[in-house]
Amino acid sequence: MMKTTRVSFEINNEKVSLDVRPYETLLETLRERLNLTGAKEACGMGSCGACTVVMNGVPVRSCLVLTPEAEGTVIATVEGLRQDGKLHPLQQAFMEKGAVQCGFCTSGMIMTAKALLDRNKKPTKKDIIKTISSNICRCTGYKKIIEAVEDAAKKANG
Amino acid sequence: MVLPKFEYKKAKNVADAIALYKGRKGKAVYLAGGTDLIPLIKQRLSTPSAVIDLKGIDELRSVTSKDGWVEIGANVTLFELKNNPVVRNNFPALYESLEATACETLQMRGTIGGNILQETRCLEHNQSLEWRTARGFCLRSGGKECNVVKGSKICFANYCSDNAPALVTLGAEAKLTGPEGTRTIKLSTLFTGDALRPFAVNAGEILTHIRVPAKKTKGAYEKLRVRESMDYPLVGVAVSATGAGAKICVGGVGLKPRMYELKNAGIEAGIKEILDKASTDAKPVANAVLSPAYRKKMVGVLIKRAVKRTIGEGK
After folding, report:
1. B6 touches chain A (CB under 8 A)
2. Sign of the Cα pseudo-torsion (A47, A48, A51, A56, in order)
3. How many independent structural domains does chain A possess?
4. What is the ipTM of this complex?
5. CATH number, domain at A70?
6. Is the pLDDT assigned to residue B172 strictly greater than 50?
7. Does A133 touch chain B (CB under 8 A)?
């Protein structure tokens, strides 16, 4: 058994310190050690985006990030979006617009969209399409997802 | 997919990374964005005993202009580079190639150094160990012959960087630092055409910077792919022009990008000669998701499109 390595980072506003395998992916750490199962493993090769979380404000494929690379970073996952019992505008919009079918891509879609809205308060439809095309959805045909992100952006701007 | 065992080391600077490499007796690999390397390790196509993370090296994270060159640190992400005004205003071929690379999320993680040094790809090679074992190993995986061109003792994998052909047309140079010191070479000489050692990079060497002559150019990048949202190039053509001449580079077919020079971008005859030559040189085989005949035909089509857009004769 190879030596474990100690990694500390902040996740959903909570500081954690863990002993992990040096060859462990962030996705494995999130799902298996922290019980944060919102990020999903689908392709495991960085193609689909189902495992997207936001690290230091940037969306990352957590299946391609080694957990030791996350040392000292600030990570947000879909589980941390709800504030004071209230859903994040993106979560609310995904529900209202029917942007969820099987749901497997949803957390990745929402986290990718969150990173977009955090860096660009007023994205155009084109910006949203470009960003969302990083993630694969095989149910909805994207229309409802794009509408949901547009709606969330509108509501966030009042 | 689960990763095999390896050590993780984070380098503080270039010298530290090389020292870490030397301590691992050639069994270590350098990690930048990981968007190419991690899938390779997952598929057991790369089997390092240690991974040396270069992302903490700040000196490789900036784009600077000095002495008539624009120097790009290898750790600059594709997204950062794409949004750099110098790139946007002066190097349209590079800008378009960055825009065409993967998807936005991967552009934010992947680095320019890693994009250039990405492994060549083939449908018979980029598969899991189980798949390759069941199929029978190809030449590159340790088998006796190529699985695509039966009987062949050479590999026909494709070099799928979008950015390298664009940088080649811009006359870029690569700066490498290794155990033997630092050297600067023409980027076009980085590619060997040998599948087992596709880059002229010595053991332990790190690609630290790419430098591009600070001249305003006109240019374009055209890419054949199946999915617009995110795909490797099945053919990629970059064109950059300064004044009357233009440089054309074809990637995505074969082990290395090939460059052609058009002395006067306005002359029809010059283009025809290059079209013929580039189509003859491109020898696609059935190792990608589109047929070889179609890809070969598209080499010429994309050159025409890219040249037309560069010299502004319509779309």
Report:
1. yes
2. positive
3. 2
4. 0.96
5. 3.10.20.30
6. yes
7. yes
Whole-angstrom CA distances from B10 to B30, B56, B204, B290, B310 are 10, 7, 15, 40, 43
Distance CA A145, CA A97 (A): 8
Four-way CATH pick for B58-117+158-311: 3.30.420.10, 3.30.465.10, 3.20.20.150, 3.40.50.300: 3.30.465.10
CATH of the domain at A104: 1.10.150.120
d(CA B82, CA B94): 8
At B26-65, the pLDDT tens digits run: 899 999 999 999 999 999 999 999 999 999 999 999 999 9
Across the interface, whether the CB atoms of B230 and A24 are under 8 A apart is answered no
Q: Report the C-alpha gap between A72 and A8 in whole angstroms.
A: 6
Q: How confident is the model at residue B270 (pLDDT cuts 50, 70, 90)?
A: confident
| Residue A30 per-residue DSSP state | I
Q: What is the pTM of this model?
A: 0.96
Range of the domain at A51: 5-80
User: Could A47 and B229 be called an inter-chain contact, meaning their C-beta atoms sit closer than 8 Å?
Assistant: no
**Nearest CB to A46: which of B3, B35, B229?**
B35
